[in-house]
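Workshop exercise sheet. Pairs work together: one partner reads the sequence aloud, the other fills in the structure field after running the prediction. Swap roles for the next sheet.
Pair: D.N. / O.F.
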Amino acid sequence: MKFKALSIFFLLAYAISWLLWSPLWLPFFNVKTEAFLPYQHGFGGLGPLLAAFLTTAIFDGKPGLHLLWKRLFQWKPLTWTAIAIFLPFVFALPGGLMARFSDGAYPDFSKMGTSGEFPELNILGFLLYNIVFFGYGEEVGWRGFVLPRLQEKYSALAATLLLSVFWAGWHLPLFAYRPGYASMNVAGVIGWFFSIVAGAVLFTWLFNGSRGSLLACALFHGLTDVVFLCDYGNDQMMQHIGMLVTIWGVAVLLIWGWRNLAPGERETTTTFDIEKG
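Structure field:
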């Protein structure tokens, strides 16, 4: 595990994102600012991606940058890319049934792909927004840079749990300005952290199973955000989907075990070095 490289990555990822988000969270501390970019929140999501490329350039040079770039578009094994695309919708459908039985009405699935926050975006625009800013924006850093380095020293599960702490911490400014975060009580924050852990397990499963495909991770992240954030006309829909994500995270652990969390071996920078050679 390359401690220095990871330390610099975390510093840069936090600094870049928190700085880009600063016009949004500083008012919480009575500091008057104005957002200086359209889609300000989205641009903050690019912090881990930028940190990954900067830190890779510092420590691994052109070979590392070439490999990282290659993994952005790695679509093989095709099975795992297909899983990344379809699994979020697999979560949504039974989530709708759960909503029907618990609340008495089916969610309005016709609104999938639309956003109350960004009504100007059509389905394609909202999808691209989430895949670019939060799919690639986060996954190039958390899974593309951090996870393989942690897996050099730790099992897949231990690496995932450690990564979850830093991933959760990166979200802290959102509790100052995002309504869904700001309204959480202590129990809600605890539940949110467990959802981070469950999500991290799924991303490790996907990353290791796909042999390090950042395309698969980015698609899964972006599509999951779309499925979560749509206005279905049912306030409990997000909780139902989150419960299913947690159940699948536990299933991954039980089926594939804590060592790799996926079929095959866990991906490490040693694996990358072999590919570069």
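Discussion prompt: The two ends are 20 Å apart (CA to CA). What would you look at next?
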